[in-house]
Amino acid sequence: MKETVLSAGIDIGTSTTQLVFSKISLENMASMMSVPRIQIVDKEVVYRSDIHFTPLVSKIEIDARAVRTIVEQEYAKAGVTPDQVQTGAVIITGETARKQNASEVLSMLSGLAGEFVVATAGPSLEGIIAGKGANAQQESKKRGATIANLDIGGGTTNIAVFNNGEVIDTACLDIGGRLIRFSGDNSKVAYCSDKMGCLTRSMGLDADEGTPISHGAIEAISQRMAGILEEVVGVVPATGELATMVTDKDLKRDYAIDYITFSGGVADCITTNCDGNDFEFNDLGRFLGRAIAKSRIFTEKQVLESAETIRATVVGAGSHTTDISGSTVTFNDDALPVQNVPILKLSEEDEAKPLETWGRTIAEKVEWFRLKEEHQTPALAFKGFDDISFEGIQLLASAIIQGMASVMNDKVPLIVVVECDLAKVLGQTLKAQLDFKKDVICIDTVKVENGDYIDIGQGLAGGKVVPVIVKTLLFGY
Amino acid sequence: MISEDKIKNIIAEVLGSMATGDQASPSQASPAAEACEELCDLTAVDLKKELQVPEPANREAYLKMKATTPARIGIWRAGPRPLTRSLLRFRADHAVAQDAVFSNVSDEFVESMGMFQITSCCKDKDHFLTRPDLGRKIDDETIATLKEKCKQSPRVQVYIADGLSSTAIETNAKDAYSSILQGLKGHGIETGTPFFLKYGRVPAMDVISEVLTPEVTVLLIGERPGLATGESMSCYMAYKASTTMPEANRTVISNIHKGGTPAVEAGAHIADIVKTMLEQKASGLDLKL
Amino acid sequence: MRLKTKLFGTLYEFKDLNEVMAKANEEKSGDQLAGVAATSVTEMIAAKEVLSEITLKDLRNNPAVPYEIDEVTRIIQDQVNERIYREIQNWTVAEFREWILSHSTTSKDIARISRGLTSEMVAAVAKVMSNMDLIYAAKKIRVTAHCNTTIGEAGTLGFRLQPNHTTDDIDGIRISLFEGLSYGIGDAVIGLNPVNDTVDSVSNVLKMFQEIKETHNIPTQNCVLAHVKTQMDAVKNGAPSDMIFQSIAGSEKGNTAFGLDGAIMAEAQDLMLREGTSTGPNVIYFETGQGSELSSEAHHGVDQVTMEARCYGFAKKYNPFLVNTVVGFIGPEYLYDSKQVTRAGLEDHFMGKLTGVPMGVDACYTNHMKTDQNDIENLAVLLGAAGCTYFMGIPQGDDIMLNYQCTGYHDASSLRELLGLTPVKEFADWLETMGIYENGRLSARAGDASLFIK
Question: How far is it, in rounded angstroms, from Cα C327 to Cα C342?
Answer without folding.
Answer: 9
